[in-house]
């Protein structure tokens, strides 16, 4: 399949070829493609071949590449596949294979707008039970539209960035007034993020069928959440400080093209959705693994998500809102039906009332020094594993 | 005061000198300072004087200037004041005075993150009564923190941009299921927007007292709102499509420095706020005028706002969220106690039940072709009027 040596079980085989931005020593950041334990330093390879647009790889973000649109994405993917499969390219590529252990991976793109959805029925039901125990867990709108909101683009950070425990206001139900202090209920959310390449025009909705024309690929997202801040602040305008301190994303953007054989039909939507949400109803078939201080604590399955990514894009633009290159929209927490498939610790520990054991210690929410690593992969029809790599972060103490 | 002829009642006297981005014919967009009916084309003036950083004015946005920080903002203001007051500068400046009627004003800065607050007690109370008639209008958190949420930065548009009527889902209380179609309850929100220049560091809150180190100035904001879309979608994660189709801002950014003598003490906050929200408790003393198809329908006063802009910034960053150059945060709708001081049409028409008469026609919400222009000005201690100019927009029919 490829002339490059690949370790067993690598997330980055010759069918994947995700793109990211790396820094090697003191050199300027630029774009690479992951293959096995290496990356291909694309700028010098493209430059030596005198490719049109080779300077696009000599950039500190993927944004210029993303803006090129689908035909260029496909042409680039075909070029990459030829580089790694065709033995004739060995001499041109081998000098530019860099061990991934030698580089620092940066934020892969500059985030324009960040939207967070809420597309898992299991997660929305669990959170409804925990946040609003006295009413129906799913609100009346939930099965009619993919509920979402805008998050903070400026605090989307690269995998590996320390997460400083946020401080803010929280009010336990039994207290009369709020107090200020570090969050005591710091949590994760396992999500899949969709990266927009091709912009749309203000006033013109993006149809469900145009999803692959606009979205280049996916990243892993950990939407860190301070549940105590969130519970006090979120009415009536939604989550704000409970989420805005940090959102971590994985460094490698995996293309939809690489995932195209790794999809499953959407679960049945009942009641039927309005026409603008009908069409391309499939989900990427991705399984996540959540490692808390190295211990596997959950394996959320993307296949059970109620709303498809194409529906999310159609909904967020149905009012004429434009999308831009670098827009990121995330699925919302991915939670499966089984307890060990829940994608947040508030669900795994059922609001903190049912601690889980991590390396022999009881845990409900995150403690200082805790590290969470989320991985994910899809299995394509031929059995090839298309990995998303990982997104990781460690909790640093609150600033006093 | 100035050697430049000024028309009576101009918003842009020699104490104001707001900055904006203009396009003159086919020339590249660049930065100007407004004075009376003219603007000073700053790039050639600064270049002829061989000023450091004169290339900053030869830019299509104010972002590079905003990033310079407060000492540079003050030095620039002193230079501008000298240009317009000192007769000796006439020969250097006069050739670069451009009639404002000859240019197109563009979006003055590239918006990084956009946050919208909800800082008027009158407005929050009115909306609570209209959206949640069966419960207390102000929710328990409202007087403890400035409630806010993130809006869509990519759809902040220049004044004068047509507003295409958004379509989407709405469900009247009496219907069983939602329908899709153009919004029937299209509204405005009169707001003041605060423009961040100096960035902050992730993990480090911005204190109340550091407000003027980070915020350069203000713009007028019209946060167009589709009330029917908003009412159906907004639980539990807040407003999304009801707001994200467009937010218009005025072209001239008025500096805090120009407004420094035009402030009033904040209304009393009771209960007392937490220590991180204590400190610089004043509001700019701005009065707005709302013109609907040319008729003055409301004059909201900023002086009655419950939360100060410094408190909003301290709150939005108290969890360690960083701010970036180009961040825009808006006050939320400005509504005064009197009926003719309400800053939205849902309040002026009390949910559509009490139409108002505009040029002899009954109006509740916006009709296609309607135009709304919001102006605003502050009165400095010496009596000088510091105008914000205007933000305007006309409703275009929904895309079918």
TrEMBL record, chains A, B:
<dbReference type="GO" id="GO:1902000">
    <property type="term" value="P:homogentisate catabolic process"/>
</dbReference>
<feature type="binding site">
    <location>
        <position position="223"/>
    </location>
    <ligand>
        <name>Mg(2+)</name>
    </ligand>
</feature>
<feature type="binding site">
    <location>
        <position position="247"/>
    </location>
    <ligand>
        <name>Mg(2+)</name>
    </ligand>
</feature>
<feature type="region of interest" description="Disordered">
    <location>
        <begin position="160"/>
        <end position="182"/>
    </location>
</feature>
<keyword id="KW-0460">Magnesium</keyword>
<feature type="binding site">
    <location>
        <position position="223"/>
    </location>
    <ligand>
        <name>Ca(2+)</name>
    </ligand>
</feature>
<dbReference type="GO" id="GO:0006559">
    <property type="term" value="P:L-phenylalanine catabolic process"/>
</dbReference>
<feature type="binding site">
    <location>
        <position position="191"/>
    </location>
    <ligand>
        <name>Ca(2+)</name>
    </ligand>
</feature>
<dbReference type="InterPro" id="IPR036663">
    <property type="entry name" value="Fumarylacetoacetase_C_sf"/>
</dbReference>
<comment type="pathway">
    <text>Amino-acid degradation; L-phenylalanine degradation; acetoacetate and fumarate from L-phenylalanine: step 6/6.</text>
</comment>
<feature type="binding site">
    <location>
        <position position="234"/>
    </location>
    <ligand>
        <name>substrate</name>
    </ligand>
</feature>
<keyword id="KW-0106">Calcium</keyword>
<dbReference type="GO" id="GO:0046872">
    <property type="term" value="F:metal ion binding"/>
</dbReference>
<feature type="binding site">
    <location>
        <position position="116"/>
    </location>
    <ligand>
        <name>Ca(2+)</name>
    </ligand>
</feature>
<dbReference type="Pfam" id="PF09298">
    <property type="entry name" value="FAA_hydrolase_N"/>
</dbReference>
<dbReference type="InterPro" id="IPR036462">
    <property type="entry name" value="Fumarylacetoacetase_N_sf"/>
</dbReference>
<dbReference type="InterPro" id="IPR015377">
    <property type="entry name" value="Fumarylacetoacetase_N"/>
</dbReference>
<keyword id="KW-0828">Tyrosine catabolism</keyword>
<keyword id="KW-0585">Phenylalanine catabolism</keyword>
<dbReference type="InterPro" id="IPR005959">
    <property type="entry name" value="Fumarylacetoacetase"/>
</dbReference>
<dbReference type="GO" id="GO:0006572">
    <property type="term" value="P:L-tyrosine catabolic process"/>
</dbReference>
<dbReference type="InterPro" id="IPR011234">
    <property type="entry name" value="Fumarylacetoacetase-like_C"/>
</dbReference>
<feature type="binding site">
    <location>
        <position position="132"/>
    </location>
    <ligand>
        <name>substrate</name>
    </ligand>
</feature>
<feature type="binding site">
    <location>
        <position position="243"/>
    </location>
    <ligand>
        <name>Mg(2+)</name>
    </ligand>
</feature>
<feature type="binding site">
    <location>
        <position position="118"/>
    </location>
    <ligand>
        <name>substrate</name>
    </ligand>
</feature>
<dbReference type="GO" id="GO:0004334">
    <property type="term" value="F:fumarylacetoacetase activity"/>
</dbReference>
<feature type="domain" description="Fumarylacetoacetase N-terminal">
    <location>
        <begin position="16"/>
        <end position="108"/>
    </location>
</feature>
<feature type="active site" description="Proton acceptor">
    <location>
        <position position="123"/>
    </location>
</feature>
<keyword id="KW-0378">Hydrolase</keyword>
<feature type="binding site">
    <location>
        <position position="189"/>
    </location>
    <ligand>
        <name>Ca(2+)</name>
    </ligand>
</feature>
<feature type="domain" description="Fumarylacetoacetase-like C-terminal">
    <location>
        <begin position="116"/>
        <end position="394"/>
    </location>
</feature>
<protein>
    <recommendedName>
        <fullName>fumarylacetoacetase</fullName>
        <ecNumber>3.7.1.2</ecNumber>
    </recommendedName>
</protein>
<keyword id="KW-0479">Metal-binding</keyword>
<feature type="binding site">
    <location>
        <position position="333"/>
    </location>
    <ligand>
        <name>substrate</name>
    </ligand>
</feature>
<feature type="binding site">
    <location>
        <position position="230"/>
    </location>
    <ligand>
        <name>substrate</name>
    </ligand>
</feature>
<dbReference type="Pfam" id="PF01557">
    <property type="entry name" value="FAA_hydrolase"/>
</dbReference>
């Amino acid at each position: 399949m490829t002339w490059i040596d690949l370790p067993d079980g690598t997330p980055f085989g010759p069918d994947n070829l995700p793109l990211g931005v790396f820094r090697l020593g003191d050199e300027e950041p630029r774009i690479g493609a992951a293959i096995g334990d290496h990356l291909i330093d694309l700028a010098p390879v493209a430059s030596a071949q005198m490719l049109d647009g080779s300077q696009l790889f000599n950039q500190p973000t993927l944004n210029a590449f993303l803006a090129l649109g689908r035909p260029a994405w496909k042409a680039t993917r075909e070029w990459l596949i030829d580089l790694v499969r065709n033995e004739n390219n060995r001499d041109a590529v081998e000098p530019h294979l860099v061990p991934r252990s030698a580089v620092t991976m940066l934020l892969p793109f500059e985030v324009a707008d960040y939207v967070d959805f809420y597309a898992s029925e299991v997660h929305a039901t669990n959170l409804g039970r925990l946040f609003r125990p006295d009413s129906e867990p799913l609100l009346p709108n939930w099965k009619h539209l993919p509920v979402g909101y805008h998050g903070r683009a400026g605090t989307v950070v690269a995998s590996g960035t320390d997460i400083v425990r946020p401080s803010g206001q929280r009010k336990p139900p039994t207290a009369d007034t709020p107090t200020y202090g570090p969050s005591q209920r710091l949590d994760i959310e396992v999500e899949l993020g969709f990266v927009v390449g091709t912009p749309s025009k203000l006033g013109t909705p993006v149809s469900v069928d145009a999803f692959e024309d606009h979205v280049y690929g996916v990243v892993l997202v950990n939407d860190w959440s301070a549940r105590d801040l969130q519970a006090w602040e979120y009415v009536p305008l939604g989550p704000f400080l409970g989420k805005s301190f940090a959102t971590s994303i994985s460094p490698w953007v995996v293309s939809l093209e690489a995932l195209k054989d790794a999809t499953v039909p959407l679960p049945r939507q009942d009641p039927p959705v309005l026409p603008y949400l009908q069409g391309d109803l499939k989900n990427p078939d991705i399984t996540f693994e959540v490692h808390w201080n190295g211990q596997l604590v959950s394996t959320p399955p993307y296949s059970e998500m109620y709303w498809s990514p194409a529906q999310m894009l159609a909904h967020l633009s149905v009012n004429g809102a434009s999308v831009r290159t670098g827009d990121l929209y995330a699925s919302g927490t991915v939670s499966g039906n089984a307890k060990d498939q829940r994608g947040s610790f508030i669900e795994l520990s059922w609001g903190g009332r049912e601690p889980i054991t991590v390396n022999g210690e009881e845990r409900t929410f995150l403690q200082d020094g805790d590290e969470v690593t989320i991985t994910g992969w899809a299995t394509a029809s031929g059995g090839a594993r298309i990995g998303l790599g990982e997104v990781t972060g460690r909790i640093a103490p609150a600033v006093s």
